[in-house]
């Protein structure tokens, strides 16, 4: 998904479904990108966001919920996967992977407690969210929930989500 389509998708989905309850919340402080940079465990994610041309979008007003894989999660991918995705020729594929980690709106872990849901990502595909025992997204576990940013929230996950 190119950057323009990402912007259109996030604008169109922000107020939908589960996300409406939190969509109007704001917080002072750094945005999602600056929060990820400051955390220092998202170097690969930040490099990927830059390579995909999504920095400006994720610094935008949002709100966004980002399921953010750690550097260790990226390192667990098969050898050569990250390097291949970061090549300029694969920018669209990289953007598809990254936007699969983003849900429009601001969704906190408490909003998911006790629920199992199918949630649309800005990629256009859905992720399975299970909040019945902690929070899981597809096969990833949220290891640190609710890192607040001025334009959304980050949930740290232990596995990179790959769209089908």
From TrEMBL:
> Which residues does UniProt assign to the signal peptide?
1-27
Query: SUPFAM superfamilies in the record, alphabetically?
Result: FAS1 domain
Give the Gene3D superfamilies listed for this entry: FAS1 domain
Alphabetized, the UniProt keywords read:
Signal
- Mind telling me which GO cellular component terms the entry cites? extracellular space
Q: Name one Pfam family in it.
A: Fasciclin
- Top-rank taxon, per record: Bacteria
Asked whether the keyword Signal is assigned, the reply is yes
Query: Which residue ranges does the record assign to the FAS1 domain?
Result: 29-161
Q: What is the recorded name of this protein?
A: Fasciclin domain-containing protein
